[in-house]
Amino acid sequence: MPAANTLDETHDPALRSWVDSANLPEADFPVQNLPFGRFIRAYPEGAASAPALGVAIGDHILDLSAAAPLMGGARLLNTAWSQLAAGDLKGYMQSAPAIRRAVRVALSRALRVGSELADNLRPHLVPMAQAAMVMPCAIGDYTDFYTGIHHARAVGQLFRPDQPLLPNYKWVPIGYHGRSSSIVVSDTPVVRPNGQKPVSDGIPVLGPSQRLDYELELGAFVAQGNPQGQPVTMAQAEQHLFGVCLLNDWSARDLQAWEYQPLGPFLAKNFATSISPWIVTMEALAPFRRPFVRDPGDPSPLPYLHSQSNSDAGAIAVDLTVSLQTEAMRSDGLAPAELSQSEYPSSAYWTLAQLVAHHTVGGCNLQSGDLFGTGTLSGPSAQQAGSLLELSQGGRVPFTLPNGEQRSFLQDGDSVVMQGRCRASGFVSISLGQVRGTVQAAPAGV
Amino acid sequence: MPAANTLDETHDPALRSWVDSANLPEADFPVQNLPFGRFIRAYPEGAASAPALGVAIGDHILDLSAAAPLMGGARLLNTAWSQLAAGDLKGYMQSAPAIRRAVRVALSRALRVGSELADNLRPHLVPMAQAAMVMPCAIGDYTDFYTGIHHARAVGQLFRPDQPLLPNYKWVPIGYHGRSSSIVVSDTPVVRPNGQKPVSDGIPVLGPSQRLDYELELGAFVAQGNPQGQPVTMAQAEQHLFGVCLLNDWSARDLQAWEYQPLGPFLAKNFATSISPWIVTMEALAPFRRPFVRDPGDPSPLPYLHSQSNSDAGAIAVDLTVSLQTEAMRSDGLAPAELSQSEYPSSAYWTLAQLVAHHTVGGCNLQSGDLFGTGTLSGPSAQQAGSLLELSQGGRVPFTLPNGEQRSFLQDGDSVVMQGRCRASGFVSISLGQVRGTVQAAPAGV
Q1: Which residues contact B274 (CB under 8 A, 6 or more apart)?
Q2: Residue B438: beta bridge partners?
């Protein structure tokens, strides 16, 4: 059993925090969560702080630039606290798993009711309402996988009704390299891309994408890396995972259809990818680990993609939703309308550990802070679709929103909101927070 | 006419350097070249210096960590010299084009015969034989294009004899995102990847690639970036280019064939990409700019990919060669045997400026130090092939080396050497140097 799956005192459902908002029912960030993020504090006089790392607790952020030096504890943790205080999340991600677990225990003890540090730490709590979240770290390489089997089948059905899943799908964790520079944190506006679109006589024109879509994914951050030429085995894979977030892989379907042969998606994806600001650590996810079960008819994975611990607890249970708020809904004060629900991991054919093992089997080196996307996590039914391409059946069947508006693909002013929550009987549920993005009009006159 | 194409005193063929080796006929690095690289100096006692930026001159390197502070000159250049002294090539890449041109003029004056700085700079010349080259900068994002039309046609012919070029080829500069972390500098050994290979009954096995190949490409480094959502026009594109190098896009053809549908190459490419250590700047390439000419039957590029200056001088003339030295040849003291010659830009369907404009047209943000690959630069004839896939006709027709050995694909111990040189009547020719890599055996027991 990988160490990251181990339950400890930090998962005790009886724990309550001296930050009251963390104890509310269904709080996103109870003391059992403790995700890491980076924020800028806005001061009333209009100034802003430098970016700092923080831990979410209730509706506040514990500012680690000030709080980490107060944590004390074992000398073994000194480097970790220094990295966290300095804002060096990538450095911290390289810590040994035992260090990361010990930091979590220390943060839990510091933030729970009865902590001796409460009075010292209280001045370093920042209300989330006074903070702007920024990217948690600079992402070196971003890899987007295609583990959502229901999505792969549904999309394949649109293009290849006789063979929705390609012959390699159940053998190879399909993935491709994405664009790192254009990954943005939640609430960053997303500009509709211009691009080439084929017209009826086979000659393309340049113009705004008319088939702009979202894709509901989880993101996973790499902890320690591996040296080039030295694969990571399934037995080691979990310790190379740092934590997860929500990810919206914005996609321009019309650009994609024209450009993707023979080398895959390019401009259809690289204008923007949005992630939620808080990284929920693998340690926090321990209560939500599940056996990873394949259908009986599916082939056994090749040995380099198999381990008993992965079969026993390789999966993570996350309930996911996608909601949409149009500009008209926003004007009318209407909340985002839920478009779909799906659940991880039943939506995925491969676990995160298998993605690590596959990515490195040929010798590719991972680095701390690299990001994986899972691919679109649609459920088996049409109501569980993780993209508009599926919900609107390739754009052919528009759907109606509660206020009467119709959509096939995204319009300017539309906000897409993705949320995720982990639940397990006998444990306090924790949230991944949300990733939200609003579509802005394409630049004119390109 | 973009400023980078402008001839100035630094291109004068009469210039000679006080570093004698720079004046030899066909020297790689005459005073007209002045490429940037990063090196580590090895001292006789076994110690090594920290990495520093340098400029190649003859068979020496001018150590900019020591030399840049001595350059003096206009105050406008102070920041640039500080960045170069500090080893911050990415910072320097963000300089305005006028600054980069002025730095080049200052370096040329400092290194030419008659320089008043010669005595001060001479102590900071490091013999190349006492230096190890390292990566010139950390590469944020790496994009590999597919501009080599003869390669695209030859490879397409192998897989789709009835339609070698796909319908989008002459409209879209096809490209995909590559892996940044595994880009290595010349002379770094390349470990043969293990990966999934389909066997006859449709079930794959894991094992070493049996169809390991090289691809002859040019690399281009991005100078200034662009903000996300703000495309770079053709009129601006040249100033976003910093310089070029040689690039070997190692490719595992058997892994690629099995994995690449539907999202493109992944493990078949991401185990390693090798680049030459010296970045030859766009300013140095001015004498070798050429009109960019399309076949009369080819469609006009869409307006966002067209500019008069690109038609007039968008191309760069580079003569390219690939050579192979097997382990047996090395043991017998035989030099690498030349496998093919080709020439840029006649091998390419798009210019570098067009790649910048296309990459950003949807809003994707480029960053200083990003790397583009051109794609495989094969000539129109079989003898000008830039990959073994083409030379061996898909592996079906092995070729014979001068010592009698045969090859279809690369064997362990094979060294691949790529070289490039720019020539123009009335100017001193300059070299891109070389990129060399030797194949090591795949790890056992994966």
Answers
A1: B183, B184, B185, B186, B188, B190, B247, B248, B250, B435, B436, B437
A2: B415
Q: What is the interface pTM, i.e. ipTM, of the complex? A: 0.96
**Which of A182, A302, A361 shows the shortest C-beta gap to B228?**
A182
The reported pTM is 0.97
Q: Which residue of A has its CA nearest to B206?
A: A302
In this complex, the residue of A203, A230, A446 whose CB is nearest that of residue B231 is A446
- A436 has which bridge partners? A417
Residue B63 tokens, joined: 């150590």
- Model confidence at A1: pLDDT above 50: no
The residues facing A321 across adjacent strands are: A341, A419
b/e A149-174 (16+ beta carbons within 10 angstroms → b): bbbbebbbbeeeeeeeeeebbbbbbb
Taking Cα atoms as reference points, which of B316, B139, B143 lies closest to residue B244? B316
Which residue from B172, B179, B271 is facing A259, i.e. has the nearest CB? B172
B60 catalytic residue (yes or no): no
In A323-422, which residue ranges form alpha helices assigned H by DSSP?
A: 327-331, 352-360, 388-391
pLDDT > 90: percent of chain B = 89
Q: What is the pLDDT of residue B48?
A: 83
Please check the confidence at residue B446 and state whether its pLDDT lies above 70: no
Q: Between chains, do B362 and A141 touch, taking CB under 8 Å as contact?
A: no
The residue with greater pLDDT, B158 or A402, is A402
Residues listed for chain A: 446
Q: Which helix (H) or strand (E) holds B83?
A: helix B78-86
Nearest CA in chain B to A145: B263
Query: In the sheet where B415-422 sits, what is the strand order?
Result: B190-191, B430-440, B415-422, B318-325, B337-344
Tell me which of A60, A124, A150, A151 is the catalytic residue.
Answer: A151
Report the relative pairing of strands A315-316 and A415-422 from DSSP bridges. unpaired
Say which residue the tokens 């940044």 belong to.
B180
Model confidence band, residue A2 (pLDDT cutoffs 50, 70, 90): very low
Residue among B94, B373, B418, B136 at smallest CA distance from B278: B136
Q: Which of these, B161, B39, B8, lies nearest to B433 by C-alpha position?
A: B39
Residue given tokens 């990873």 in the structure block: A292
DSSP E strands, B151-202: 175-178, 183-185, 190-191, 194-198
Residue B430 confidence (pLDDT) above 80: yes
Q: Which residues of B touch A362 (CB under 8 A)?
A: 193-195, 209, 252, 255, 267, 270-271
Report d(CA B134, CA B215) in Å as an integer: 21
Locus of tokens 């790392």: A53
